[in-house]
Amino acid sequence: xxxxxxxxxxxxxxxxxxxxxxxxxxxxxxxxxxxxxxxxxxxxxxxxxxxxxxxxxxxxxxxxxxxxxxxxxxxxxxxxxxxxxxxxxxxxxxxxxxxxxxxxxxxxxxxxxxxxxxxxxxxxxxxxxxxxxxxxxxxxxxxxxxxxxxxxxxxxxxxxxxxxxxxxxxxxxxxxxxxxxxxxxxxxxxxxxxxxxxxxxxxxxxxxxxxxxxxxxxxxxxxxxxxxxxxxxxxxxxxxxxxxxxxxxxxxxxxxxxxxxxxxxxxxxxxxxxxxxxxxxxxxxxxxxxxxxxxxxxxxxxxxxxxxxxxxxxxxxxxxxxxx
Length: 324
Known about the structure:
By secondary structure, the protein is an alpha/beta fold. It folds into two domains: 52-133 and 269-323, D-Maltodextrin-Binding Protein, domain 2 (3-Layer(aba) Sandwich); 136-252, D-Maltodextrin-Binding Protein, domain 2. 42% of the residues lie in helices and 19% in strands. It has 13 helices and twelve strands. A five-stranded mixed beta sheet has the order 2-1-3-12-4. It has a five-stranded mixed beta sheet with strand order 8-7-9-5-10. The chain has a two-stranded parallel sheet with strand order 6-11. β1, α2 and β2 form a beta-alpha-beta unit. α12 packs antiparallel against α13. The relative contact order is 0.17.
C-alpha cells in the first residue's frame, strides 16, 4: 500500500511540474516571476517492528484454540516468537508459579492453593475467559449399546470401589464385558473438573489409562469397542467419524447446549491467566494477549469450542488495558 501511495504522489508532482513548463514560449513578460522550487517529502518513517519472546503452558483442552491463535499471530508479528507447552492445567500453573512462563492456559478456574502460591511468589496475574467447552464422554463407533448415561451412571462407572466394572453392571441389557477406561492425567484441568462434578473427589478407577495427551485417549477409544473416555468437545468433533458421543441425562453436547448451560454439569469455561508483569513490561506479551482476546471467539469456533458473548471479550480487553 505504501508503494502505491508513493507512486501516486510522485506522479501528481511530476505532472504539476510538467504543466508549469508547457506555457507558450512566444508569450513573455518584461519581468519574469522567480520560480519557486517545488519540494515534496515522500519519505515515511519506518514502522517499528515488534520483537520478543512470549511463553505459555497449560491445558491440552485450551491448546487447539491457542495453537490457532499462535499461527494467526505469526502472520501479523513475524518477529515475535510465541511458544506454548501442553503439560496440563496443573502442570502449567506449576511453571507459571515458578516464573517460567508469561501466561498459563487452564480448563478450570485457578485453585485457592495456586492463588496462594502465586501470591507468595510475588506474581500478580489477570484472568481472561476465552471460550466455553462441553466435557464430552465418548465411546467407539463399534459400541452399539450406549447412547445415554446419567450422572449417577458415570459415578458408578468411574469411582473406584474395588470391583471389576462391566457394562452389564450399569445396564443388565448391556454386554457382560469389562469396561476399558481412558482418562486425562491428574495434572489436567479436565480431570480436575470431572473430579469436582462427577467423582466428588473420590478415587478414579485404578484400571484407567491416564494421559495428559488427549490424542492418546482418542486413539485408545477408537481401537476398543469396550472403551470409554472423557475430554474436551473439540477433540470429539475432530474425531467424530470414529467416536460416538454419549448423551448425559438425555442432552448431547452441542454449541447451543454448551452455551446455554443445558449440557449440565459438564459445560465449563476455558481460561488464560497472564502475568501482570509480563503484560506491563513486555510489549510482545501485551500485544499477543490483545490479539488473542480480539480473535479468541473466532478461533474457538474454528477448532470446535463455543465462543463467548462479545461483551465478555470486551471486558477482557478492558481488564488487559487496565494492566498496561
